[in-house]
Structure formats: structure tokens, C-alpha cells
Write a structure and sequence with these properties.
heterodimer, A: alpha/beta, globular, B: little secondary structure, 1 helix, 9% helix, 7% strand, flat, metal-binding (chain A), oxidoreductase activity (chain A), iron-sulfur (chain A), rSAM_sf (chain A)
Chain lengths: 463, 46
């Protein structure tokens, strides 16, 4: 499959199965468009045929001279022979092995506190409680979770543990105790824990920051952007905005981590479709690691992203991409998580096929020790997989997730972005369609746009 | 080539041979938590 598009003056061609990306001139672009439209299964055979060459020339001679067209055809042939254009997707056979594959657990999302000191309107955890009761995780439950992770991680050395909530700082002592316990386990089992803390910042102080900077590989700081946007969606329980309270602490956190290994992480909604302003606001405040992502909500929520919002969001991503190129060239660049793409050292095919790992490599643990496929499934009865005492008891749920990949989803089969998103988020699919093998359609539209922008940025910066 | 500039040399097919060690980061742990972003991750087995 080949996907090509024009953005910001660049003609970009993606060869999906090989992962190759080409920037081409107009004549090549137009020939590839004809090839996509008219060529048979074997494009190389088609293009080598002199009748086809004549046909292409006759269709394009109004715009280009025949020598130019012949030259372009020759370049295209070279790419096909080199298996970097019109490459066949041969990975489907490979995926059959996935069923037999023994998976290990390598990441846990620990729900340290099902409670929160903010009342964010879009919270999928319903103000921290996940359709259930307020609760905090005990040290004992957390310890058992880490023991489970060690015992089920096989030969994998790098293990990830995210302290999540609700708001994990509401149960900070347990976080610290679990980090110490994890460090002991590392020595005994030759493992390496990478801890992440996700916080709204309300309780953040110097002592916590010092500990986090020593022990946390990554810190995710929740802030939506401009004050009025942030305060509207992220009020405290008494209705007062939280921006003024958290911002100085987040600036200090980012600086103290040398602008690395953290994210300021915001959510945009139907109310701020001009979200590029929020991203740039965060950049103007000096943050270098920024993630601002679309809210995922059913259409009946007034803040939900609606189908008719999509063109506006596309424009906004384009605007942001152009501004990022400009700032990068001026030496004022920053990372935007959703535009990050690793073209050279990116993930292998196995990773791209298997997706995010929810339900297999990645599990969420509730304060009382229950396992769910990921944090977004917590509280959904049908997805309760087991607990820290008995391990995974519903292995059929794990097996269902094991087989959830791009080839299991009809909508992914024809999508050019399938090896960039790996079939999308199972929780989002389930939320909108009641099945983990469907997709969240608006999310897919936005994902495709982001992939296009991210690659265009690479093209612009490669000049 | 006069008409084409290739941006990346990585061929996904070649990663079939030695890929799949699983040491890479779990997608949702980095920042997102509400989407699936795999293409931006780095291989730890280069």
C-alpha cells in the first residue's frame, strides 16, 4: 500500500509495508497517483511494460515533457526494485504466531489513589473514583503487585511502573515505600524499574520533587494550556481554578529535570479547538516536553470532539506543525508528543503489530489489588482479569487482547497509519463500539492527520 | 535520484529477523494514557 499527500509545500509518499518515506517532486507524485489508480497487483511488471509507459506519458504530457516523465518512471522503478515502494504487506502470516506466543508482563499502572483533589470535567476516572468507591492502595497491595510483575516478567529486564490515580500524591508515603521496595527487588532479580509519576500538581512540594527527581524516570504533569482553558475544565472541588496553584511548581519541576524526562500533559476539548494556542502557551512558558491530546468522550458530552470539529482540528495541527518548524529553525524548538516519530530507530514490526500491550504486557492494578487490561478499563466488570493474590484468573481476557492487532480490525486493513498507531486504543474502541477489535473513528482521523504532520516536519527539517 | 529524496532507510521487513525482544517502553506509559502511539517509540535493541 502506498499513501501520498501534500502538506506545507511538500509532496510526501509513504510506502506502508516497508516503512519507507520519500519526498518527491510533482511529476513523480502525479505518476504515483496514476499507478495507485490504475496499476495491477504487480506494479513493477506494469511499469516495465512499454505500453504502460506510453499510457503514463500520454496522460501527463500536458504538464511535463516526456523526458522528464521517463526519468521519473526510472526513479520509481528503482524504488520498487529496492523494496521501498509498492512493497507487499507480508506480516499477516507472521501474526499467526502471536496466538501461540507466551506473553510476559512488563508494565503496571498502579492506581495508588482512587481519589482526587480536583474535579476535572472530562476525567475518565470520574473524579478519581472509576465508577466505584474512593480508596487508596495499601503498601501490602502495592508490594504484591510488584512481586507479581517480577514473577511474570520472564527475561525482560526493563520493567515500568506508573504511579497513577486519581491523584497519587494523595497517597505519597505508599509511593515512596514502593519505590524503595522496587529498588530492593532490582538487586535480587537483576531487573530495572522505570517509575513514572502522573500528577495534577496540587500537593507537589520540594520534598516530593526531590524524591521524584531521584527516582522517577518520567513525570507527567497535568496542565491544559492557557489559564482560562485550564481553569474551566480543571477546577478544584470548590469550583476554583487550579492553574495559579500548579504552574510555578510545574515550571520548577521541568527546570529541575533539565527540561528532560517529563511531560506537561494537557487535554483539549470541543471548547478549545484552537488548542495550538495552548501548546504554544506552554512552550512560551519554557516547557520543552509537551503533550496536548484530544479528549475522548461520547458525543452526548458537551465538551466531546464532534465529527464536524475535525476540519478545524486538522487546520490547527497544520498551524502548529508550521510554527514548530519555524521555532526549531530559530533554535527555540520543543517536543510535541503527538508529532514525535522515530523514522530511523523506531519500533520493530513485532511491536507495531502487537499494539500498546494492554491486557498482556501492561495491566492496571486497582487500590484493592484487582487487575484490568489498562487504566481505562478499570471499573468495567467484564474486564476484571484477576488480582494480586491469585494472578490472572480470566486468561480468556488476556488471550482476547493478545489477538487484538491491526489484522484483527477491518478498518485498519486499508489504513495507511496502521503501523504507526498499531491499531489504536482498545479502550477507546470498546467505549464507542462495545468491542476491542473496532476503532474509535474520530480518533483515527486525528491520528492519520498527526502522522502526516509529523512526517512533514521531518521533511522540512531534513532540508 | 533527481526526483526523489528518501527520508528514512529503515526497512520494516528487516526487523522481522531480530525484532520482538520486548524491551521497549509500553506505549501508554510515556504520556498519552488515552491514545495509542507506537510509531514514536524507540527500539532498545539497535
Amino acid at each position: 500500500m502506498v499513501h501520498q499527500y501534500k502538506n506545507n509545500g511538500y509532496n510526501i509518499v509513504l510506502d506502508i509495508a516497508s516503512g519507507a518515506i520519500h519526498v518527491v517532486d510533482d511529476v513523480v507524485y502525479d505518476i504515483i497517483a496514476l499507478l495507485i489508480e490504475t496499476a495491477s497487483e504487480d506494479v513493477l511488471e506494469y511499469i516495465q511494460n512499454s505500453a504502460s509507459e506510453k499510457e503514463i506519458i500520454s496522460q501527463l504530457e500536458e504538464h511535463y515533457n516526456s523526458e522528464e516523465i521517463k526519468e521519473a518512471i526510472s526513479d520509481i522503478k528503482e524504488l520498487i526494485e529496492d523494496e521501498s515502494l509498492f512493497t507487499k504487506d507480508i506480516y499477516k502470516e507472521y501474526i499467526m504466531d502471536f496466538k501461540k506466543r507466551k506473553t510476559v508482563v512488563k508494565a503496571l499502572c498502579l492506581h495508588i489513589a482512587h481519589d482526587c483533589n480536583l474535579a476535572c470535567k472530562y476525567c475518565f476516572a470520574e473524579e478519581g473514583e472509576y465508577h466505584g468507591r474512593r480508596a487508596i492502595m495499601s503498601y501490602e497491595v502495592g508490594k504484591k503487585a510488584l512481586d507479581f510483575l517480577i514473577a511474570n516478567s520472564g527475561n525482560r529486564r526493563n520493567l515500568e511502573v506508573d504511579f497513577f490515580g486519581g491523584e497519587p500524591l494523595m497517597n505519597w508515603q505508599v509511593v515512596k515505600d514502593l519505590v524503595h521496595y522496587g529498588r530492593e527487588l532490582e538487586k535480587n532479580y537483576d531487573k530495572k524499574f522505570r517509575f513514572t509519576l502522573t500528577t495534577n500538581g496540587v500537593l507537589l512540594n520540594d520534598d516530593i520533587l526531590e524524591f521524584a527527581n531521584k527516582e522517577m524516570s518520567n513525570v507527567v504533569l497535568s496542565i491544559d494550556g492557557r489559564k482560562e482553558i485550564h481553569d474551566f475544565m480543571r477546577p478544584s472541588r470548590n469550583g476554583k481554578g487550579s492553574y495559579e496553584l500548579i504552574l510555578p511548581k510545574f515550571i520548577k519541576t521541568a527546570e529541575s529535570r533539565n527540561q528532560n524526562n517529563y511531560y506537561v500533559r494537557g487535554t483539549f476539548t470541543h471548547h478549545n479547538l484552537d488548542f495550538a494556542k495552548d501548546v504554544l502557551h506552554l512552550a512560551d512558558l519554557g516547557f520543552k516536553q509537551i503533550s496536548v491530546e484530544p479528549v475522548v468522550a461520547l458525543e452526548d458530552e458537551e465538551y466531546a470532539i464532534k465529527k464536524e470539529d475535525i476540519p478545524r482540528i486538522y487546520d490547527e495541527y497544520d498551524k502548529l506543525a508550521r510554527e514548530m518548524i519555524q521555532r526549531e529553525k530559530e533554535g527555540k524548538g520543543f517536543n510535541f508528543f503527538h508529532f514525535m516519530i522515530d523514522l530511523e530507530g523506531g519500533p520493530c514490526v513485532a511491536k507495531r503489530l502487537s499494539g500498546c500491550g494492554s491486557g498482556t504486557e501492561y495491566l492496571a492494578v486497582t487500590p484493592w489489588g484487582d487487575f484490568y487490561p489498562c487504566h481505562q478499563f478499570v471499573g468495567e466488570d467484564g474486564f476484571l482479569m484477576g488480582n494480586v493474590d491469585d494472578g490472572i484468573t480470566k486468561t480468556e481476557i488476556r488471550d482476547e487482547f493478545k489477538l487484538c492487532n491491526v489484522y484483527a480490525k477491518d478498518k485498519c486493513k486499508e489504513c495507511f497509519a496502521r503501523f504507526y498507531c498499531s491499531g489504536g486504543c482498545a479502550a477507546n474502541s470498546n467505549k464507542f463500539h462495545g468491542s476491542i477489535t473496532d476503532v474509535y473513528d474520530i480518533g483515527c482521523d486525528l491520528q492519520r492527520k498527526r502522522v502526516e504532520c509529523a512526517i512533514m516536519i521531518k521533511a522540512a527539517l531534513a532540508e | 535520484m533527481k526526483h526523489i529524496k528518501t527520508l528514512n532507510t529503515k526497512n520494516l521487513k528487516s526487523t522481522l529477523k531480530k525484532g520482538g525482544c520486548g524491551e521497549c517502553q509500553t506505549s501508554c506509559q510515556s504520556a498519552c494514557k488515552t491514545s495509542c502511539t507506537v510509531g514514536n517509540q524507540s527500539c532498545e535493541n539497535k
